[in-house]
Design a protein that fits this description.
heterodimer, A: 86 residues, alpha+beta, Alpha-Beta Plaits, four-stranded antiparallel beta sheet, globular, B: 408 residues, alpha/beta, 12 helices, 27% helix
Chain lengths: 86, 408
Protein backbone atom coordinates (compact mmCIF):
# COMPACT_ATOMS: atom_id res chain seq x y z
CA UNK A 1 0.00 0.00 0.00
CA UNK A 2 1.35 3.39 -1.00
CA UNK A 3 2.22 5.68 1.87
CA UNK A 4 -0.53 8.23 2.45
CA UNK A 5 0.34 11.71 1.23
CA UNK A 6 -1.39 13.33 4.19
CA UNK A 7 -1.46 12.30 7.82
CA UNK A 8 -4.77 10.74 8.77
CA UNK A 9 -5.27 13.12 11.67
CA UNK A 10 -4.82 16.17 9.45
CA UNK A 11 -7.10 14.75 6.77
CA UNK A 12 -9.85 14.18 9.33
CA UNK A 13 -9.43 17.69 10.69
CA UNK A 14 -9.76 19.27 7.26
CA UNK A 15 -12.64 17.02 6.16
CA UNK A 16 -14.48 18.13 9.28
CA UNK A 17 -14.15 21.80 8.18
CA UNK A 18 -13.81 21.73 4.37
CA UNK A 19 -14.57 25.42 3.87
CA UNK A 20 -11.92 26.60 6.34
CA UNK A 21 -9.02 28.66 4.97
CA UNK A 22 -5.84 26.77 5.75
CA UNK A 23 -2.14 26.96 4.98
CA UNK A 24 -0.11 23.99 3.82
CA UNK A 25 3.34 22.97 2.64
CA UNK A 26 3.16 20.56 -0.28
CA UNK A 27 6.18 18.55 -1.34
CA UNK A 28 6.23 17.71 -5.02
CA UNK A 29 8.16 15.77 -7.59
CA UNK A 30 7.61 18.34 -10.32
CA UNK A 31 9.32 21.66 -10.97
CA UNK A 32 7.66 24.22 -8.70
CA UNK A 33 6.95 26.59 -11.59
CA UNK A 34 5.13 23.82 -13.44
CA UNK A 35 2.55 23.35 -10.73
CA UNK A 36 1.71 27.02 -10.10
CA UNK A 37 -0.97 27.22 -12.79
CA UNK A 38 -2.48 23.93 -11.70
CA UNK A 39 -2.73 25.12 -8.12
CA UNK A 40 -4.15 28.48 -9.06
CA UNK A 41 -6.79 26.84 -11.27
CA UNK A 42 -7.95 25.01 -8.17
CA UNK A 43 -8.40 28.28 -6.36
CA UNK A 44 -5.26 27.91 -4.31
CA UNK A 45 -2.85 30.74 -3.62
CA UNK A 46 0.85 30.01 -4.02
CA UNK A 47 2.70 31.79 -1.20
CA UNK A 48 6.23 30.44 -1.69
CA UNK A 49 8.00 28.36 -4.30
CA UNK A 50 11.05 26.57 -2.97
CA UNK A 51 14.04 25.32 -4.93
CA UNK A 52 16.42 23.91 -2.32
CA UNK A 53 13.60 21.57 -1.41
CA UNK A 54 11.00 20.73 -4.11
CA UNK A 55 7.95 22.15 -2.41
CA UNK A 56 5.39 24.93 -2.43
CA UNK A 57 3.62 26.78 0.36
CA UNK A 58 -0.04 27.40 -0.43
CA UNK A 59 -3.22 28.67 1.13
CA UNK A 60 -6.82 27.96 0.31
CA UNK A 61 -9.89 26.01 1.28
CA UNK A 62 -9.22 22.81 3.18
CA UNK A 63 -11.23 20.75 0.72
CA UNK A 64 -9.22 22.07 -2.24
CA UNK A 65 -5.92 21.27 -0.57
CA UNK A 66 -7.18 17.82 0.40
CA UNK A 67 -7.88 17.08 -3.25
CA UNK A 68 -4.17 17.39 -3.99
CA UNK A 69 -3.60 14.12 -2.13
CA UNK A 70 -4.75 12.27 -5.28
CA UNK A 71 -2.11 13.88 -7.50
CA UNK A 72 0.93 11.83 -8.53
CA UNK A 73 3.19 14.90 -8.46
CA UNK A 74 2.43 15.40 -4.76
CA UNK A 75 4.57 13.45 -2.26
CA UNK A 76 3.22 14.96 0.95
CA UNK A 77 0.86 17.57 2.31
CA UNK A 78 1.59 19.05 5.71
CA UNK A 79 -0.02 21.83 7.68
CA UNK A 80 1.93 25.07 7.75
CA UNK A 81 2.40 25.34 11.49
CA UNK A 82 3.53 28.11 13.81
CA UNK A 83 7.09 28.51 15.01
CA UNK A 84 8.34 30.89 17.66
CA UNK A 85 11.43 32.38 19.24
CA UNK A 86 13.46 30.23 21.60
CA UNK B 1 47.27 49.83 59.37
CA UNK B 2 50.21 47.97 57.74
CA UNK B 3 51.90 50.00 55.04
CA UNK B 4 52.19 47.01 52.70
CA UNK B 5 48.70 45.75 51.72
CA UNK B 6 48.08 42.13 52.60
CA UNK B 7 48.05 40.74 49.06
CA UNK B 8 51.44 42.29 48.30
CA UNK B 9 52.88 41.12 51.63
CA UNK B 10 51.73 37.63 50.83
CA UNK B 11 53.30 37.80 47.37
CA UNK B 12 56.72 39.01 48.45
CA UNK B 13 56.83 36.33 51.15
CA UNK B 14 56.32 33.66 48.50
CA UNK B 15 58.81 34.78 45.85
CA UNK B 16 62.59 34.84 45.91
CA UNK B 17 64.18 38.01 47.42
CA UNK B 18 65.62 38.99 44.03
CA UNK B 19 62.29 38.61 42.21
CA UNK B 20 61.33 41.93 40.54
CA UNK B 21 58.05 43.25 41.88
CA UNK B 22 56.03 46.12 40.49
CA UNK B 23 54.40 48.29 43.14
CA UNK B 24 52.50 51.54 43.47
CA UNK B 25 53.65 53.73 46.36
CA UNK B 26 51.83 56.59 48.02
CA UNK B 27 54.27 59.12 49.45
CA UNK B 28 53.61 61.75 52.06
CA UNK B 29 53.47 65.28 50.72
CA UNK B 30 53.15 66.66 47.23
CA UNK B 31 53.37 64.90 43.87
CA UNK B 32 56.63 66.77 43.21
CA UNK B 33 58.11 65.42 46.42
CA UNK B 34 57.00 61.94 45.39
CA UNK B 35 58.90 62.28 42.12
CA UNK B 36 62.10 63.06 44.00
CA UNK B 37 61.65 60.23 46.46
CA UNK B 38 60.67 57.73 43.77
CA UNK B 39 63.85 58.51 41.86
CA UNK B 40 65.85 57.18 44.76
CA UNK B 41 63.99 53.87 44.64
CA UNK B 42 64.27 53.27 40.90
CA UNK B 43 61.51 55.25 39.30
CA UNK B 44 59.14 53.78 36.75
CA UNK B 45 56.22 56.17 36.56
CA UNK B 46 55.29 59.25 38.55
CA UNK B 47 52.18 61.40 38.47
CA UNK B 48 51.46 65.11 38.52
CA UNK B 49 48.10 65.07 40.22
CA UNK B 50 48.74 62.66 43.11
CA UNK B 51 51.81 61.80 45.25
CA UNK B 52 52.04 58.27 43.87
CA UNK B 53 54.78 56.50 41.99
CA UNK B 54 54.88 53.18 40.19
CA UNK B 55 58.16 51.41 40.86
CA UNK B 56 59.85 48.15 40.03
CA UNK B 57 62.24 46.77 42.62
CA UNK B 58 63.27 43.48 44.13
CA UNK B 59 60.95 41.77 46.59
CA UNK B 60 63.44 42.17 49.41
CA UNK B 61 63.58 45.96 48.90
CA UNK B 62 59.80 46.38 49.16
CA UNK B 63 59.97 45.89 52.93
CA UNK B 64 62.74 48.45 53.40
CA UNK B 65 60.86 50.88 51.13
CA UNK B 66 57.79 50.61 53.32
CA UNK B 67 59.83 51.42 56.42
CA UNK B 68 60.66 54.90 55.12
CA UNK B 69 58.85 57.72 56.92
CA UNK B 70 58.03 59.29 53.57
CA UNK B 71 56.05 56.23 52.45
CA UNK B 72 52.41 56.00 53.43
CA UNK B 73 51.35 52.79 51.70
CA UNK B 74 52.46 50.25 49.11
CA UNK B 75 50.15 48.32 46.75
CA UNK B 76 50.83 45.71 44.07
CA UNK B 77 50.73 47.13 40.55
CA UNK B 78 48.17 44.67 39.16
CA UNK B 79 47.45 43.90 35.49
CA UNK B 80 44.12 45.15 34.21
CA UNK B 81 41.99 43.83 31.36
CA UNK B 82 38.80 44.75 29.63
CA UNK B 83 35.66 43.19 31.04
CA UNK B 84 34.11 40.84 28.57
CA UNK B 85 30.87 38.98 28.84
CA UNK B 86 31.45 35.76 30.78
CA UNK B 87 30.20 33.54 27.97
CA UNK B 88 32.78 34.91 25.55
CA UNK B 89 35.59 34.32 28.04
CA UNK B 90 34.32 30.85 28.99
CA UNK B 91 34.37 29.76 25.36
CA UNK B 92 37.95 30.93 24.83
CA UNK B 93 36.91 33.40 22.15
CA UNK B 94 39.41 36.16 23.10
CA UNK B 95 42.25 33.73 22.39
CA UNK B 96 40.91 33.35 18.88
CA UNK B 97 40.66 37.13 18.51
CA UNK B 98 44.30 37.37 19.54
CA UNK B 99 45.22 35.58 16.31
CA UNK B 100 43.54 38.36 14.33
CA UNK B 101 40.48 36.33 13.35
CA UNK B 102 37.28 38.12 14.34
CA UNK B 103 34.93 36.92 11.61
CA UNK B 104 36.09 39.14 8.76
CA UNK B 105 34.71 38.07 5.39
CA UNK B 106 32.17 35.65 6.81
CA UNK B 107 28.46 36.24 6.14
CA UNK B 108 26.03 35.10 8.82
CA UNK B 109 22.28 35.08 8.22
CA UNK B 110 19.98 35.86 11.13
CA UNK B 111 16.58 34.33 10.37
CA UNK B 112 14.48 35.87 13.13
CA UNK B 113 12.37 38.90 14.15
CA UNK B 114 14.48 41.36 12.19
CA UNK B 115 17.41 43.48 13.39
CA UNK B 116 17.62 47.05 14.67
CA UNK B 117 20.21 48.23 12.16
CA UNK B 118 20.57 51.56 14.00
CA UNK B 119 22.06 49.93 17.09
CA UNK B 120 25.62 51.24 17.60
CA UNK B 121 27.04 47.71 17.85
CA UNK B 122 25.45 46.68 14.55
CA UNK B 123 25.52 49.87 12.50
CA UNK B 124 26.88 49.31 9.06
CA UNK B 125 27.16 45.57 9.63
CA UNK B 126 23.85 44.39 8.16
CA UNK B 127 24.31 44.42 4.41
CA UNK B 128 21.07 42.81 3.21
CA UNK B 129 17.60 42.39 4.66
CA UNK B 130 14.28 40.93 3.58
CA UNK B 131 10.92 40.85 5.26
CA UNK B 132 8.87 37.66 5.05
CA UNK B 133 6.54 38.50 7.93
CA UNK B 134 4.48 41.18 6.21
CA UNK B 135 5.20 43.62 9.07
CA UNK B 136 8.19 45.41 7.58
CA UNK B 137 11.79 44.65 8.51
CA UNK B 138 11.92 46.67 11.77
CA UNK B 139 12.57 44.48 14.82
CA UNK B 140 9.50 45.18 16.95
CA UNK B 141 10.24 42.31 19.30
CA UNK B 142 13.94 42.54 20.18
CA UNK B 143 14.84 38.89 19.78
CA UNK B 144 16.57 39.14 16.42
CA UNK B 145 18.63 42.13 17.50
CA UNK B 146 19.74 40.33 20.66
CA UNK B 147 20.71 37.28 18.63
CA UNK B 148 22.57 39.40 16.08
CA UNK B 149 24.51 41.09 18.86
CA UNK B 150 25.64 37.78 20.30
CA UNK B 151 26.84 36.70 16.87
CA UNK B 152 28.56 39.83 15.69
CA UNK B 153 28.03 42.87 17.90
CA UNK B 154 31.17 44.97 18.19
CA UNK B 155 30.42 46.25 21.69
CA UNK B 156 30.84 49.88 20.71
CA UNK B 157 28.05 51.02 23.05
CA UNK B 158 29.72 49.26 25.99
CA UNK B 159 33.40 49.97 25.42
CA UNK B 160 33.80 46.45 24.13
CA UNK B 161 32.30 44.72 27.16
CA UNK B 162 29.37 43.21 25.33
CA UNK B 163 31.13 42.20 22.15
CA UNK B 164 29.70 39.33 20.17
CA UNK B 165 31.63 36.21 19.21
CA UNK B 166 32.54 37.35 15.68
CA UNK B 167 32.57 41.15 15.98
CA UNK B 168 33.81 41.77 12.44
CA UNK B 169 31.55 39.34 10.59
CA UNK B 170 28.95 40.53 8.10
CA UNK B 171 25.25 40.03 8.79
CA UNK B 172 22.28 39.53 6.51
CA UNK B 173 18.83 39.15 7.95
CA UNK B 174 15.49 37.63 7.05
CA UNK B 175 12.57 38.72 9.17
CA UNK B 176 10.37 35.63 9.40
CA UNK B 177 8.84 36.20 12.84
CA UNK B 178 6.42 38.95 13.73
CA UNK B 179 6.54 41.35 16.63
CA UNK B 180 4.94 38.76 18.91
CA UNK B 181 7.77 36.35 18.18
CA UNK B 182 5.73 33.92 16.10
CA UNK B 183 5.66 33.04 12.44
CA UNK B 184 4.80 30.40 9.89
CA UNK B 185 7.02 27.47 9.04
CA UNK B 186 6.70 28.32 5.36
CA UNK B 187 8.10 31.83 5.94
CA UNK B 188 11.05 30.42 7.89
CA UNK B 189 11.74 27.99 5.04
CA UNK B 190 11.66 30.91 2.62
CA UNK B 191 14.07 32.82 4.86
CA UNK B 192 16.50 29.91 4.97
CA UNK B 193 16.41 29.54 1.20
CA UNK B 194 16.89 33.30 0.76
CA UNK B 195 19.93 33.15 3.05
CA UNK B 196 21.50 30.40 0.94
CA UNK B 197 20.70 32.22 -2.30
CA UNK B 198 22.36 35.36 -0.93
CA UNK B 199 25.61 33.72 0.02
CA UNK B 200 25.29 33.08 3.74
CA UNK B 201 28.17 31.00 5.07
CA UNK B 202 26.35 30.47 8.38
CA UNK B 203 22.61 30.53 9.11
CA UNK B 204 21.26 31.08 12.62
CA UNK B 205 17.83 29.78 13.56
CA UNK B 206 16.99 30.66 17.16
CA UNK B 207 13.43 29.47 16.70
CA UNK B 208 11.35 26.37 16.33
CA UNK B 209 8.18 24.53 17.13
CA UNK B 210 7.26 22.41 20.09
CA UNK B 211 6.83 18.68 20.11
CA UNK B 212 9.15 15.83 19.31
CA UNK B 213 10.09 15.26 15.70
CA UNK B 214 12.13 12.91 13.55
CA UNK B 215 13.73 15.32 11.09
CA UNK B 216 11.40 14.56 8.18
CA UNK B 217 9.24 17.68 8.55
CA UNK B 218 9.57 20.37 5.86
CA UNK B 219 11.57 22.87 7.92
CA UNK B 220 14.07 20.25 9.09
CA UNK B 221 14.42 19.04 5.52
CA UNK B 222 14.98 22.61 4.31
CA UNK B 223 17.72 23.04 6.92
CA UNK B 224 19.34 19.80 5.78
CA UNK B 225 19.17 21.09 2.21
CA UNK B 226 20.84 24.34 3.28
CA UNK B 227 23.70 22.34 4.79
CA UNK B 228 23.97 20.32 1.58
CA UNK B 229 24.18 23.63 -0.27
CA UNK B 230 27.25 24.52 1.83
CA UNK B 231 25.94 26.61 4.72
CA UNK B 232 26.67 25.89 8.37
CA UNK B 233 23.24 25.89 10.01
CA UNK B 234 22.94 26.41 13.77
CA UNK B 235 19.53 25.71 15.30
CA UNK B 236 18.12 25.98 18.79
CA UNK B 237 17.29 22.75 20.60
CA UNK B 238 14.24 24.31 22.22
CA UNK B 239 13.23 25.47 25.70
CA UNK B 240 10.94 22.63 26.72
CA UNK B 241 13.40 20.87 29.03
CA UNK B 242 14.12 19.07 31.19
CA UNK B 243 11.45 16.67 29.90
CA UNK B 244 12.98 14.09 27.54
CA UNK B 245 12.15 14.06 23.81
CA UNK B 246 11.44 17.78 23.65
CA UNK B 247 13.75 18.79 20.83
CA UNK B 248 11.39 20.18 18.22
CA UNK B 249 11.80 21.28 14.62
CA UNK B 250 14.25 22.26 13.27
CA UNK B 251 16.33 21.10 16.24
CA UNK B 252 15.72 17.52 15.22
CA UNK B 253 17.14 18.07 11.74
CA UNK B 254 20.08 15.71 11.19
CA UNK B 255 22.64 17.95 9.49
CA UNK B 256 22.51 21.30 11.31
CA UNK B 257 24.26 21.86 14.63
CA UNK B 258 21.57 21.65 17.31
CA UNK B 259 22.47 23.76 20.31
CA UNK B 260 21.50 23.34 23.95
CA UNK B 261 22.04 25.93 26.67
CA UNK B 262 24.36 25.96 29.67
CA UNK B 263 24.97 28.50 32.41
CA UNK B 264 28.31 30.04 33.35
CA UNK B 265 28.86 27.25 35.86
CA UNK B 266 28.64 24.68 33.06
CA UNK B 267 25.31 23.26 34.15
CA UNK B 268 22.86 22.40 31.38
CA UNK B 269 19.97 24.82 31.81
CA UNK B 270 16.82 23.16 33.06
CA UNK B 271 14.83 24.71 30.23
CA UNK B 272 17.15 23.34 27.54
CA UNK B 273 15.28 20.71 25.54
CA UNK B 274 16.44 17.14 25.88
CA UNK B 275 16.73 14.39 23.34
CA UNK B 276 16.48 11.89 21.93
CA UNK B 277 14.59 12.77 18.75
CA UNK B 278 11.44 10.89 17.85
CA UNK B 279 13.61 8.50 15.81
CA UNK B 280 16.02 8.06 18.74
CA UNK B 281 18.96 10.14 17.55
CA UNK B 282 21.15 12.07 19.97
CA UNK B 283 20.25 15.74 20.09
CA UNK B 284 21.29 18.38 21.03
CA UNK B 285 24.70 18.05 19.42
CA UNK B 286 26.51 20.49 21.69
CA UNK B 287 25.88 23.19 24.29
CA UNK B 288 26.83 26.86 24.44
CA UNK B 289 26.12 29.42 27.18
CA UNK B 290 22.53 30.57 27.06
CA UNK B 291 21.64 31.89 30.54
CA UNK B 292 21.58 35.60 31.37
CA UNK B 293 23.28 36.65 28.16
CA UNK B 294 23.61 40.39 27.68
CA UNK B 295 23.33 41.60 24.12
CA UNK B 296 21.94 44.33 21.93
CA UNK B 297 18.59 45.81 22.77
CA UNK B 298 16.44 46.88 19.83
CA UNK B 299 15.19 50.46 20.09
CA UNK B 300 11.74 50.66 21.61
CA UNK B 301 11.66 47.05 22.82
CA UNK B 302 11.72 45.54 26.28
CA UNK B 303 12.54 41.87 25.74
CA UNK B 304 14.42 40.28 28.63
CA UNK B 305 15.82 42.21 31.57
CA UNK B 306 16.96 45.58 30.30
CA UNK B 307 20.43 46.72 31.32
CA UNK B 308 20.33 50.14 29.74
CA UNK B 309 19.26 51.84 26.53
CA UNK B 310 21.45 49.59 24.41
CA UNK B 311 21.57 46.21 26.15
CA UNK B 312 19.29 43.63 27.66
CA UNK B 313 19.80 40.24 29.28
CA UNK B 314 17.94 37.13 28.14
CA UNK B 315 18.06 33.38 28.49
CA UNK B 316 17.19 30.54 26.16
CA UNK B 317 18.58 28.17 23.60
CA UNK B 318 17.97 31.20 21.37
CA UNK B 319 20.95 32.82 23.12
CA UNK B 320 23.11 29.71 23.00
CA UNK B 321 22.63 29.20 19.27
CA UNK B 322 24.17 32.50 18.09
CA UNK B 323 27.28 31.72 20.14
CA UNK B 324 27.56 28.65 17.93
CA UNK B 325 26.99 30.69 14.77
CA UNK B 326 29.70 33.15 15.76
CA UNK B 327 32.05 30.30 16.60
CA UNK B 328 31.37 28.71 13.22
CA UNK B 329 32.28 32.01 11.57
CA UNK B 330 35.63 32.10 13.37
CA UNK B 331 36.40 28.52 12.37
CA UNK B 332 35.42 29.18 8.77
CA UNK B 333 37.60 32.26 8.61
CA UNK B 334 40.57 30.17 9.75
CA UNK B 335 40.08 27.76 6.85
CA UNK B 336 37.64 28.66 4.10
CA UNK B 337 37.86 25.17 2.60
CA UNK B 338 36.02 23.67 5.55
CA UNK B 339 32.62 22.16 4.85
CA UNK B 340 29.65 22.41 7.26
CA UNK B 341 30.30 18.91 8.56
CA UNK B 342 33.93 19.85 9.25
CA UNK B 343 32.80 22.79 11.39
CA UNK B 344 30.33 20.57 13.23
CA UNK B 345 32.99 17.95 13.85
CA UNK B 346 35.53 20.51 15.09
CA UNK B 347 33.09 21.93 17.61
CA UNK B 348 31.74 18.60 18.80
CA UNK B 349 35.09 16.85 19.02
CA UNK B 350 36.61 19.59 21.19
CA UNK B 351 33.70 20.10 23.55
CA UNK B 352 34.08 19.81 27.30
CA UNK B 353 32.34 16.85 28.86
CA UNK B 354 30.00 18.14 31.56
CA UNK B 355 29.57 14.68 33.04
CA UNK B 356 25.85 14.58 32.47
CA UNK B 357 23.27 12.87 30.30
CA UNK B 358 24.21 12.88 26.63
CA UNK B 359 20.62 13.78 25.76
CA UNK B 360 21.08 16.99 27.76
CA UNK B 361 24.60 18.03 26.78
CA UNK B 362 25.24 16.27 23.50
CA UNK B 363 29.01 16.23 23.10
CA UNK B 364 29.35 18.81 25.92
CA UNK B 365 29.94 22.52 26.26
CA UNK B 366 31.80 24.04 23.35
CA UNK B 367 35.41 25.15 23.68
CA UNK B 368 35.87 27.48 20.76
CA UNK B 369 39.61 28.07 21.07
CA UNK B 370 40.22 24.32 21.33
CA UNK B 371 38.12 23.83 18.21
CA UNK B 372 40.08 26.61 16.51
CA UNK B 373 43.31 24.77 17.30
CA UNK B 374 41.82 21.49 16.10
CA UNK B 375 42.22 19.87 19.50
CA UNK B 376 40.04 16.92 20.35
CA UNK B 377 38.93 16.08 23.87
CA UNK B 378 39.42 12.44 24.77
CA UNK B 379 36.14 10.60 25.13
CA UNK B 380 35.48 9.35 28.64
CA UNK B 381 34.76 5.64 28.97
CA UNK B 382 31.04 4.98 28.91
CA UNK B 383 29.66 3.91 32.25
CA UNK B 384 28.14 0.42 32.45
CA UNK B 385 24.44 0.55 31.68
CA UNK B 386 22.20 0.50 34.74
CA UNK B 387 19.12 -1.68 34.41
CA UNK B 388 17.30 -0.48 37.49
CA UNK B 389 13.97 -1.25 35.94
CA UNK B 390 13.29 2.36 35.15
CA UNK B 391 14.02 2.17 31.46
CA UNK B 392 15.87 4.84 29.53
CA UNK B 393 15.27 7.56 32.09
CA UNK B 394 17.32 5.65 34.66
CA UNK B 395 20.37 5.28 32.43
CA UNK B 396 23.01 7.96 32.25
CA UNK B 397 24.54 7.59 28.84
CA UNK B 398 27.79 9.10 27.80
CA UNK B 399 28.19 8.45 24.16
CA UNK B 400 31.19 9.87 22.46
CA UNK B 401 31.80 9.40 18.84
CA UNK B 402 34.80 11.02 17.26
CA UNK B 403 33.57 12.17 13.90
CA UNK B 404 36.24 12.02 11.21
CA UNK B 405 36.52 15.24 9.27
CA UNK B 406 34.82 14.98 5.89
CA UNK B 407 32.43 12.19 6.76
CA UNK B 408 28.76 12.57 7.48
Amino acid sequence: MAKSRIAARLARKWRASPQTQVHAIVRIVAEPEDVVSVLEQRGLKVVHLYRLLPAVAISGLAQDILSLADEDWVTSIEEDTQVHTM
Amino acid sequence: MPKIVQSLQQHISQVSPEQPVRVIVRYRGTPEAAVTRAAVAGRVTTYRMVPFAALELSAQRVQSLAELDTVEQVWPDLPVHIWLQQSIVLLGVPQVWATGDRGQGIVIAVVDTGIDVTHPDLQGRVTLTKDFSGEGFQDNHGHGTHVAGIIAGNGSASNGEYSGVAPEATLIAAKVLKGDGSGLTSDVMAGVEWAVQNGAHVINLSLGSDGSCDGTDPLSQMCDAAVDAGAVVCVAAGNAGPTPRTVGSPGCAAKPITVGATDVNDHVASFSSRGPTADNRIKPDICFPGVAIVSCRAHGTSMGQTINEFYTSASGTSMATPHCSGAAALLLQADRSRKPQDIKNLLMNSAKDLNTDVYAQGRGRAQVYEAYLGHETPPPPPPPPSDGGGGCSQVIRRFWQVLPIGRT
